[in-house]
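Severity: low
Component: inverse-folding endpoint
Summary: output formatting inconsistent between runs
Steps to reproduce: submit the following structure tokens with default settings.
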């Protein structure tokens, strides 16, 4: 765990209540990599400050989600939260499938972008 000095503010925990997905944006056909029939996927977000190497606690997990048509995997996430305190220089996207450990799949290298296409196998 990263240490912070008494003068550094603690990064807030992201709130994902508005996060969603674009139902037209999936990256893979069912059966590609981890995207198998019946998958259940969860996502979490953390804020990261590269200047101080600090990371916030993970948000609550968003999900479980699956493709309602059972055809695709790899969600196009939308409304990814930004750090309103302005401390974060990046956001990290974590993913886990039911019964598996969390995995860091992407780092958005700004505090502005609110979309991400999960195309990680």
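Observed output (run 2 of 3):
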């Amino acid at each position: 765990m990263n240490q912070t000095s008494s003068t550094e503010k603690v990064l807030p925990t992201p709130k994902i209540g508005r996060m969603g997905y674009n139902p037209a944006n999936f990256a893979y056909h069912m059966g590609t990599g981890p995207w198998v029939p019946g998958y259940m996927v969860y996502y979490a977000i953390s804020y990261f400050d590269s200047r101080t190497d600090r990371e916030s606690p993970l948000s609550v997990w968003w999900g479980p989600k699956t493709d309602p048509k059972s055809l695709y995997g790899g969600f196009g996430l939308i409304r990814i939260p930004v750090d309103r305190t302005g401390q974060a220089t990046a956001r990290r996207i974590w993913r886990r499938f039911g019964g598996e450990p969390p995995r860091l799949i992407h780092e958005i290298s700004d505090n502005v972008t609110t979309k991400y296409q999960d195309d990680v196998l």
